[in-house]
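Project outcomes to date are best conveyed with an example. Our students and postdoctoral researchers have been running inverse folding experiments weekly, and each run begins with a structure described purely in tokens. The record below, which covers 434 residues, was selected by the lab manager from last quarter's runs and is presented without edits.
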């Protein structure tokens, strides 16, 4: 048809030809797949009948593949006494509720990047795969827990090296995820009536540093950041992030640095799981607290407050945090008795007293270390926020955890490693390469 059109009308836009060829190729691929797996003498595990089972030969099975639907006819074994049935071919092919493993992988990847409805549109436009958003959501909930379970056994080649790691960093933070009302029953929150609209998702990251730039500033190693996330308690999540650090090379790290904000649960997690790490309070959070403190001590937005904030910020960067604390205490004494409460001036100064040993920013700079938690802050937005906190989204804990697992795996560059392990799908590529 194309040759005839070229002869009659000459060369025109290529898109029609491309799309036509794609349709023809996928049609041929469907026929090929059906033919490959119709042979009754195919060898596969567990294909023999078991005691009490009746074999139904040629039982039809509709399967969705990346080339479209195909129909297989295979042996189906049924045991009436237990009302159990099995199809060895389905198991050997790795079908998931009638969907091919490659289609499941693609659907999960699309859903890891965007909402389920948008993922369906992307698959249709880019891969000619016809799935609706609800089908993709079901495939995510079925496959994501299995993929996440295999991640602990997956390591990138660079993580298998025996070379020492100069500096390994661990950062942890949390961010609220909007949840269905059923997932919030009995939970306290920040609403006026004490109820909650969100659940805190905890995110942890591990990355490495082997060099500095020309000015002596720390440089994060390229593609060295990996993420883990969950809705677990702080103590449970501590085990998860420590396991990730061990998998990344914690045991061969010359130095371990833990960076976090002022949340008490973060430092308790660090104390238990990374007792030998250098703990650093993120400078940005410290400066936020300093701004609030200066406004409280010298008047909101006043010139004196701004001047003292600038001076004390410089002292922070000169390892003079104890001098800031002493000056703030002196000013508070001059002000006289102040109202007590969680946001009182006394509590704000106590924040710096509690963290002063984590605020030696000049020393950290001289040692060529990071002292900001920008990586995990960006991770909360990119890994969690961009996918789980879009307008109109409300999650069950199971659904949110499934998508969070996929996001962490994808953005840690572990996607193909994990899926190849789950689906045991690397064998054909290896033979082809050989």
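After processing, the design step wrote out the following sequence:
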């Amino acid at each position: 048809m194309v040759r005839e059109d070229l002869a009659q009308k000459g060369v025109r836009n290529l898109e029609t030809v491309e799309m036509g060829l794609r349709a023809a190729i996928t049609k041929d691929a469907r026929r090929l797949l059906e033919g490959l797996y119709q042979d009754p003498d195919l060898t596969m595990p567990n294909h023999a009948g078991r005691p009490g089972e009746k074999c139904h030969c040629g039982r039809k099975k509709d399967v969705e593949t990346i080339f479209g639907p195909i129909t297989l006819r295979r042996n189906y074994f049924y045991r009436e006494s237990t009302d159990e049935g099995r199809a060895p071919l389905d198991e050997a092919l790795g079908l998931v509720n009638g969907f091919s493993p490659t289609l499941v992988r693609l659907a999960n990847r699309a859903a890891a990047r965007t909402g389920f409805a948008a993922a369906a549109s992307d698959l249709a436009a880019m891969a000619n795969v016809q799935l609706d958003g609800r089908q993709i959501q079901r495939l995510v909930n079925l496959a994501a827990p299995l993929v996440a379970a295999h991640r602990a056994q997956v390591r990138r080649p660079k993580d298998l090296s025996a070379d020492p790691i100069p500096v390994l960093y661990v950062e942890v933070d949390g961010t609220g995820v909007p949840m269905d009302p059923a997932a919030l029953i009995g939970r306290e929150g920040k609403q006026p009536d004490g109820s909650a609209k969100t659940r805190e998702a905890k995110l942890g990251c591990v990355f490495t540093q082997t060099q500095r730039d020309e000015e002596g500033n720390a440089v994060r190693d390229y593609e060295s950041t990996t993420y883990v996330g969950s809705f677990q308690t702080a103590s449970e999540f501590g085990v998860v992030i420590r396991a990730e650090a061990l998998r990344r090379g914690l045991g061969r790290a010359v130095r371990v640095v833990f960076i976090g904000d002022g949340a008490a649960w973060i430092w308790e997690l660090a104390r238990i799981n990374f007792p030998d790490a250098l703990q650093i309070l993120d400078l940005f959070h410290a400066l936020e607290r300093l701004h609030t403190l200066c406004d409280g001590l010298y008047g909101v937005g006043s010139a004196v407050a701004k001047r003292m904030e600038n001076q004390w910020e410089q002292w922070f960067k000169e390892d003079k945090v104890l001098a800031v604390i002493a000056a703030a205490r002196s000013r508070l004494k001059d002000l006289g008795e102040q109202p007590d409460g969680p946001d009182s001036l006394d509590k704000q100064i106590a924040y710096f007293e509690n963290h002063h040993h984590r605020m030696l920013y000049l020393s950290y700079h001289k040692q060529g270390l990071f002292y900001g938690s920008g990586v995990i802050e960006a991770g909360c937005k990119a890994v969690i926020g961009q996918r789980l906190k879009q307008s109109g989204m409300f999650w069950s804990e199971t659904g949110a955890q499934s998508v969070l697992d996929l996001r962490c795996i994808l953005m840690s560059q572990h996607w193909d490693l994990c899926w190849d392990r789950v689906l045991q799908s690397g064998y054909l590529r290896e033979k082809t390469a050989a």
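Residues 155-282+372-413 form one domain. The CA atoms of residues 88 and 323 lie 73 Å apart. The training component of this project remains on track.
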